[in-house]
Design brief:
Helices cover about 30% and strands about 20% of the residues. Bound molecules: beta-D-galactopyranose.
Length: about 650
C-alpha cells in the first residue's frame, strides 16, 4: 500500500475538531497519520509522570477510521521542565552561547541526561503501544541535525578521536600528524587540550572541523540507535525509521545512517514553483532511494502549499501536489505524506500550509488532497516495485563537509552545486540516476560521475581504477582527489591517486571570481573554478579559449584498460555539461529506458520481479505532449492502445501488461 497522510497533532485541537478530522481523513482516503512528533510535554508533563489517555484515544479514533499510526518519539522537543532540571543539556553554539527553551531542538544530543530521558520516553511509548493493531511504523525523533559545541560534546569528541587515532600518547601523536598541528602552533600535548572547533580568533583547523562533523553524525546515530533498540525490544516486528532532511549542508553521513534504519524516509520542500522543482525532487528522491539501497523509501513530509522559511514564502501552484507526489513515487517512494494534517492556529509555523487549511475543507488545497488520496488508491499496486539505473553519481559526505569548511576554499565553491549540475545533466538525457558512496560498488553501473569528490581515500581511489580498467566509464570533475581522509593534501599534483588513471596532472588552482565565465573552444564555458591542467597520456577534448589558461586543456579523456575516463577541470555550463554527459552515455552504450520527449517531460519506470512494470509520465512543461505508450491507465481506468495526450502539469501512470 502507498502511505498517504501526514503529521497529526490532536493535542492542538478540541473534541469537535477530532471528530471532523477522522471524517475528513476518511473522505480524503488518508491511511496513515504520524502522531507524537512534538508531544513530549503532553506525554510526560512532569519528569517521570506520563499521560497516555489522549494518545490512547487518538489511537482508537484513528484505528476505527482505518487510519494506521506512525508513532513518533517526541525527543526533538524536550519540555521546559527538562531544560530547567538539566541546564547542562541545553545546546551551546560554537561561540559559547547557551540556548534556552522556547522553540524546539533545545538539547545537546551528547548530554547523558538528555539521552537517558529520550530513551526513557521512547521505551514508555513502546511498552504502551506494543501490539496495538494501528501501529505500523516507528518514527524516531525528528530530523536529526541539531549540533552542539558544549563540554559534553567535547568529552564525546575526545572519546571518538581516541577510537579513531588510538588512546594515550601514541593516539595523540597520530592526531597531531593527521590534523597537521605543526601549522600555527596547534600541537596538542594532552588529550584534555583537544576541543570541538569552537569560535576562535581566525581560521579553524580543517582536519579538526572534518573530524568533528564525522563525530557529530556518529554521536547522533548512537542517540538514534539507543531509541531504536529500546523500541525494538518491545515491538520487534514494527519497522523503525527517522525522517532525514536533505539540506544544503548535511549534518548526517546518510550512508552510515541508511544502514541503521529499517526504511529511509525524507522530508522535502522544493523551493521552486517552475519546472526546476522537478530537478529538486529527482535529486532528493534519487538520494533517498540510493541510501535505502534501491528499495522503496518514504516521503515523510512535504507541504500541501506554502512553506515558511527565512521569511521566503513559497506556495505550490495548483495541481502540483498530485504531480510532485507522483514524481516522488516514480522515483521509488511508497508514500505521499505531509507536514501536516491540519494547519496550526498558533505557534512558529502557523502560516505553514497543511492538508486541511485554516479556511477548512472547502478549499482548493483540500480538494487537491482529496483527489490525491483517491489517485493513490488507484496506484496501490505500484508499491513495493523498484527502479533500475545504469548511471550513478558519487555522493560523499566527507567531501561535502571538507569543501564547505569555510574559508579553506571560496564560499562560492559549493559541493552540492557540482553534484546538482551533474544530476541535472543525467536527468536531461532521460536517465534515472543513482547515487553511490565513493568506496561503493560501481560494478552495476555503466557510467559513474565522480563529482567534486575532494576527499578520496586510498580504497576509494583503488576501486575507481578497478572500475574503469574493467570496462566502466567515469567522469571525474574538478576538485576531486585533492586531500586524503585526514583532509591533508596529497602531494605531486591533483587529483593525486587518480592522475595515472586519468592521464592528467593539475598543477595549480585558478578559482574564478564571482560571476566570471571562461569560454571553452568547443562551446559553452566554465565558472566558479578552473585548473592549470597538463595532459600526461590523456587526449585533450577541449581547451580554455581565453584568460590565463588560454590554450590549456579544460576537458580530457583517456582509455584505461577496457574503460574510459574523462577529467573536467572547471564547473561546466549546463549546455556544455549536457553534451559531455550525452557523449559519455553514448560511449558507455546506455540508452534511456523511456524516450526523452522534451526537457520538462519526464518518463520513469518502476518494475516488480514478477514482470509487471509501470510507466510514469510527468509533464512539468507548459505545452501538451503526445506520449507514445500502451497498457492500462491506472488513474483514468482505461486501456491505452498507443498514445496518451499529456497536458501541461499532468501525469499519467500506465501499467505495461495492460490487464485491468
Ligand atoms: C520540517 C519539520 C516539520 C516542520 C516542517 C515545516 O523540516 O520536520 O516539523 O517544521 O519542516 O516545513
Amino acid at each position: 500500500m502507498l502511505l498517504f497522510g501526514g503529521d497529526y497533532n490532536p493535542e492542538q485541537w478540541d473534541a469537535p475538531t477530532w471528530a471532523e478530522d477522522v471524517a475528513l481523513m476518511r473522505e480524503a482516503r488518508v491511511n496513515a497519520a504520524t502522531v507524537g512528533v512534538f508531544s513530549w510535554s503532553c506525554i510526560e508533563p512532569r519528569e517521570g509522570s506520563y499521560r497516555f489517555d489522549w494518545l490512547d484515544a487518538t489511537f482508537e479514533r484513528l484505528h476505527n477510521a482505518g487510519v494506521a499510526v506512525i508513532l513518533a518519539t517526541p525527543t526533538a522537543s524536550p519540555p521546559p521542565w527538562f531544560s530547567l532540571a538539566h541546564p547542562d543539556a541545553l545546546p551551546v553554539r560554537a561561540d559559547g552561547t547557551r540556548l534556552v527553551h522556547g522553540s524546539r531542538d533545545t538539547y545537546c544530543a551528547a548530554a547523558p541526561s538528555y539521552r537517558q530521558a529520550a530513551a526513557r520516553v521512547a521505551t514508555k511509548l513502546a511498552e504502551r503501544y506494543a501490539g496495538h493493531p494501528a501501529l505500523v511504523l516507528w518514527h524516531v525523533h525528528n530530523e536529526y541535525g541539531t549540533m552542539c559545541w558544549c563540554d559534553h560534546a567535547a568529552t564525546g569528541f575526545r572519546t571518538w578521536l581516541q577510537q579513531r587515532y588510538g588512546p594515550a600518547q601514541q593516539g595523540l601523536d597520530e592526531l597531531n600528524e593527521a590534523w597537521g598541528t605543526a601549522f600555527w602552533s596547534q600541537r596538542y600535548g594532552d588529550w584534555e587540550e583537544v576541543l570541538p572547533p569552537r569560535a576562535t580568533q581566525w581560521l579553524a583547523n580543517p582536519s579538526q572541523t572534518l573530524d568533528f562533523r564525522r563525530f557529530w553524525s556518529s554521536e547522533l546515530l548512537r542517540a538514534f540507535v539507543e531509541q531504536r533498540d529500546a523500541i525494538r525490544a518491545h515491538t520487534p516486528a514494527i519497522p523503525v525509521t527517522t525522517n532525514f532532511m536533505l539540506s544544503d549542508t548535511p549534518v548526517l553521513d546518510l550512508w552510515e545512517w541508511g544502514r541503521e534504519v529499517d526504511v529511509v524516509a525524507i522530508d522535502h520542500y522544493p523551493n521552486s514553483r517552475g519546472s526546476s522543482a522537478y530537478d529538486q525532487i529527482a535529486l532528493a528522491a534519487d538520494m533517498a532511494r540510493s541510501i535505502n539501497q534501491g528499495r522503496p523509501w518514504l516521503v515523510m513530509e512535504q507541504a500541501a502549499s506554502t512553506t515558511v522559511e527565512d521569511h521566503a514564502v513559497v506556495h505550490r501552484p495548483p495541481g502540483r501536489t498530485l504531480l510532485d507526489s507522483l514524481a516522488y513515487i516514480a522515483h521509488g517512494s511508497d508514500s505521499a505524506l505531509f507536514f501536516q494534517w491540519r494547519a496550526s492556529r498558533a505557534g512558529a509555523e502557523m502560516y505553514h500550509s497543511a492538508m486541511v487549511p485554516h479556511a477548512g475543507p472547502d478549499t482548493r488545497i483540500f480538494r487537491e488532497i482529496r483527489s490525491l488520496g483517491h489517485a493513490l488508491e488507484d496506484l496501490n499496486e505500484v508499491s513495493g516495485s523498484t527502479t533500475d539505473a545504469e548511471v550513478a553519481i558519487v555522493l560523499d559526505f566527507d567531501s561535502w563537509w571538507a569543501i564547505e569548511a569555510r574559508r579553506v576554499l571560496p564560499a562560492r565553491v559549493q559541493y552540492l552545486d557540482g553534484v546538482r549540475a551533474d544530476h541535472r545533466a543525467v536527468t536531461f538525457a532521460g536517465h534515472l540516476c543513482d547515487f553511490v558512496p565513493a568506496d561503493g560498488d560501481f560494478s552495476r553501473y555503466k557510467l559513474v560521475i565522480v563529482s567534486n569528490t575532494y576527499v578520496l581515500s586510498d580504497e576509494a581511489a583503488h576501486g575507481m581504477h578497478q572500475y574503469v580498467r574493467n570496462g566502466g566509464c567515469m567522469i571525474v570533475t574538478c576538485l576531486s582527489g585533492v586531500v586524503d581522509s585526514s583532509n591533508t593534501v596529497r602531494l605531486g599534483g591533483y587529483p593525486a591517486l587518480l592522475r595515472s588513471l586519468l592521464g592528467v596532472r593539475v598543477e595549480e588552482f585558478h578559482p574564478l571570481a564571482r560571476g566570471e565565465l571562461v569560454p571553452l573552444c568547443g562551446g559553452g564555458y566554465g565558472s566558479v573554478w578552473s585548473e592549470r591542467l597538463e595532459a600526461h597520456g590523456a587526449d585533450v577534448l577541449d581547451r580554455y579559449e581565453t584568460g590565463d589558461l588560454a590554450g590549456g586543456p579544460a576537458i580530457t579523456g583517456r582509455a584505461a584498460g577496457s574503460g574510459y575516463a574523462w577529467y573536467v577541470s572547471t564547473r561546466l555550463s549546463d549546455e556544455r555539461n549536457n553534451l559531455l554527459v550525452l557523449d559519455a552515455l553514448a560511449a558507455a552504450g546506455i540508452t534511456p529506458a523511456l524516450a526523452k520527449l522534451g526537457p520538462a517531460v519526464h518518463g520513469l519506470l518502476r518494475r516488480k520481479g514478477s514482470g509487471h512494470s509501470w510507466q510514469f509520465w510527468l509533464n512539468y512543461g507548459d505545452t501538451t505532449v503526445d506520449v507514445p505508450t500502451r497498457g492500462y491507465d491506472l488513474l483514468l481506468h482505461r486501456p491505452v492502445p498507443a498514445r496518451v495526450e499529456l497536458l501541461p502539469g499532468a501525469a499519467v501512470v500506465v501499467r505495461q501488461d495492460g490487464a485491468p
